């Protein structure tokens, strides 16, 4: 059973910073990509950032230059450093991982989400 667990969310003032982390655990054979999505109240889930299949990084235009994604392959973790946060960054942030369990098919897994609220 594969699990993704996010942490690091919270309440922060505009202009502040937060660091989100996500750890993948369980029976994992190989992780292809990991990334972050978010969903604000009343809106659809949207892409935030991820690692590409060749190991590069990709960001949505709304967070480019403010968010940085990083990864620790040895620990199966992915982090999202967020600076200069804006009220419009308020959302439930989800981690996902495209991976293969031993003997199983390649599949995308999702965490339960961590809340980020940017407000004064």
Explain what you see.
This protein is mainly β and 120 residues long. Helix content is 0%, strand content 56%. The protein has no helices and eleven strands. The protein is elongated, with a radius of gyration of 14 Å.
Spell out the helices and strands N to C: EEEEEEEEEEE
Largest β-sheet summary: 7 strands, mixed
Distance between the termini: 40 Å
Helix content: under 10%
Radius of gyration: 14 Å
Q: Show unreliable segments.
A: none
**Would you tell me the structural class of the helices and strands?**
mainly beta
Shape field: elongated
Secondary structure: number of strands: 11
Provide the β-strand percentage band.
over 45%
Number of helices: 0
Averaged pLDDT = 95
List the helices and strands and how they pair.
Elements: E1 3-7, E2 10-12, E3 18-25, E4 30-39, E5 46-51, E6 57-59, E7 67-72, E8 77-82, E9 91-100, E10 106-110, E11 114-118
Parallel strand pairs: 2-11
Antiparallel strand pairs: 1-3, 3-8, 4-5, 4-9, 5-6, 7-8, 9-10, 9-11
Quickly list its features:
120 residues, four-stranded antiparallel β-sheet
Give a short summary of the structure.
With 120 residues, this protein is an all-beta fold. The protein has strands spanning 3-7, 10-12, 18-25, 30-39, 46-51, 57-59, 67-72, 77-82, 91-100, 106-110, 114-118.
């Amino acid at each position: 059973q594969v699990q993704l667990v996010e942490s690091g969310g919270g309440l922060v003032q505009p202009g502040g910073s937060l660091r989100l982390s996500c750890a993948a655990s369980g029976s994992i054979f190989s992780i292809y990509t990991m990334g972050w999505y978010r969903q604000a109240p009343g809106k659809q889930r949207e892409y935030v950032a991820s690692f590409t299949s060749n190991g590069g990084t990709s960001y949505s235009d709304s967070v480019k230059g403010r968010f940085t994604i990083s990864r620790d392959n040895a620990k199966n973790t992915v982090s999202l450093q967020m600076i200069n946060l804006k009220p419009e960054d308020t959302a439930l942030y989800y981690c996902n991982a495209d991976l293969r369990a031993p003997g199983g098919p390649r599949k995308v897994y999702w965490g339960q989400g961590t809340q980020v609220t940017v407000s004064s």
